[in-house]
Amino acid sequence: MTAMGVLDEIVDTIRYPLAEPEAPQRRAAVARAQADLDDTGCTVLREFIRPELIEMLRSQGEAMAPDAYYRVERVNAYNIPLDTELPQDHPGRIVLERGNAFVPRDRIPADALIHRLYTSAEFQRFVADCFGLAELHEFADPLAGLCLNVVAPGMSHPWHFDTNEFTVSMLTQPAAEGGIFEYCPNIRSPHAENIDDVRDVLTGAEERLIRRLDLRPGDLQLFRGRFSLHRVSPVTGGVQRHSAIFAYTDRPGVIGTVERTRQLFGRVLPDHLAAADVVRGDRLLD
Questions:
Q1: Is the predicted pLDDT of residue 282 greater than 80, yes or no?
Q2: Which of 6, 125, 164, 194 sits 20 to 30 Å CA-CA off 204?
Q3: Cα(44)–Cα(169) distance, rounded to whole angstroms?
Q4: How does pLDDT run across 81-121, given as a tens digit for each residue?
Q5: With bands split at pLDDT 50, 70 and 90, how would you rate the model's confidence at 1?
Q6: Domain boundaries defined on the chain
Q7: Distance between CA 63 and CA 196 in Å, rounded?
């Protein structure tokens, strides 16, 4: 099947003609996304997936969910070891409970809608344009490049920063109640951790920094999660929350740390061990 066939089958190409760089609808979508990302580090492209595929999107995610690695972990917002030497009042000392689970890329079928979209060159070019990048690369991590985030009732994905700078996600199944995406736009920068603001959010002392998104299945969310603290609030009711995470970077070869990989997937691969000493593009904790 041609790349254009993938887009026609999956994406509402009337609203989002990804393969036509000069189409007015595509240019308008890119302009809106760039403005939102410059302003808040986040944008949502509504009804990105063809409406007749929403149930397939949901059912495929439901079929993958049992392959998630389920383990409640004690973590911090930086996903660094809890015994890391930090000043007494540093927010990295605040311990959170992470109850969400991830289906790794090597457990996602190649013919799944989310896998076909993630690897589409036209989709990647569109995402790069929205982020204002000359090029975009798949997150080289063999487990975390593409995954399904599963939050079961009674669980949450606590406040954290992403390892990769550019994250694209899509809700595939909403929770019955709760499971709201919350974020703090650009709470830190590549050169400043701004730990006072981070600590205030983690302790509940600062509500004004938090924004919330009303996401619907099939909406495409683009996010600069390395600089914006974010979480999925506790899920209640009897339905799991599922979302696909499409991870991209602006440079090739980026792989998650050994510590974070063990936390999220319960295992590490030789690629993670080999990348353990690689210096990142910034000096942030993680």
A1: no
A2: 164
A3: 9
A4: 899 999 999 999 999 998 999 999 999 999 999 999 999 99
A5: very low
A6: 3-274
A7: 42
Task: Supply the pTM of this predicted model.
Answer: 0.88
Q: What is the pLDDT of residue 212?
A: 96
Q: What does the alpha-carbon distance between residue 261 and residue 284 come to, in Å, rounded to a whole number?
A: 18
- At 283 the pLDDT is 63
- pLDDT, tens digit, for every residue of 46-80? 999 999 999 999 999 999 999 999 989 899 999 88
d(CA 264, CA 226): 17
- 57, 33, 213: which is closest to 126 by C-alpha? 33
Place of tokens 């302009």: 31
Q: Amino acid identity of 27?
A: R
Where does residue 24 rank: exposed (0-12), middle (13-18), buried (19+ CB within 10 A)?
A: exposed
Fold of 3-274: Jelly Rolls (2.60.120)
- Percent of the chain scored above 70 by pLDDT? 94
* Residues β-bridged to residue 138: 248
Say which residues have a Cβ less than 8 Å from residue 190's Cβ, sequence separation at least 6: 227, 281, 282, 283, 284
**189-218: pLDDT as tens digits:** 999 999 999 999 999 988 899 999 999 999
